[in-house]
Amino acid sequence: MNNASAQKAGYPFSLFTYDPALTSKLNSALYVAASEGHLTAPASLTFEYADQDVVARKVFHFDPGYVLNVETTVHV
Questions:
Q1: What is the pLDDT of residues 46-70, one digit of tens each?
Q2: What are 16-41's pLDDT values in tens digits?
Q3: Percent of the chain with pLDDT over 90
Q4: How many helices (H) and strands (E) does the chain have?
Q5: CB under 8 Å to 62, separation ≥6 — which residues?
Q6: Which are the contacts of 39, defined by CB distance < 8 A and separation ≥ 6?
Q7: Cα distance between residue 48 and residue 34, in whole Å
Q8: What is the four-CA torsion angle of 30, 60, 43, 32, rounded to 10 degrees?
Q9: What is the pLDDT of residue 19?
Q10: Distance of alpha carbon 26 from the chain centroid
Q11: Please, are residues 59 and 44 in contact by the beta-carbon 8 Å criterion?
Q12: What is the pLDDT of residue 29?
């Protein structure tokens, strides 16, 4: 991982909002994986975070080849 680049552009799969406090919360939160064990493509892996104010979800869809689709939602 290149920390200098991450300071400028952010870490992979990090989220951005126009509220710095919310951005910090979303990127430092511990997300819970909805799947366990060994997955074989095609498959999906979901990570969720929720507190009393925010619900965030990141879904990674792995195709049989080398294609990765990412779906993110944040509800405030």
A1: 999 999 999 999 999 999 988 999 9
A2: 999 999 999 999 999 999 877 788 88
A3: 67
A4: 2, 4
A5: 39, 41, 42, 43, 44, 45, 68
A6: 45, 62
A7: 8
A8: 10
A9: 96
A10: 9
A11: yes
A12: 95
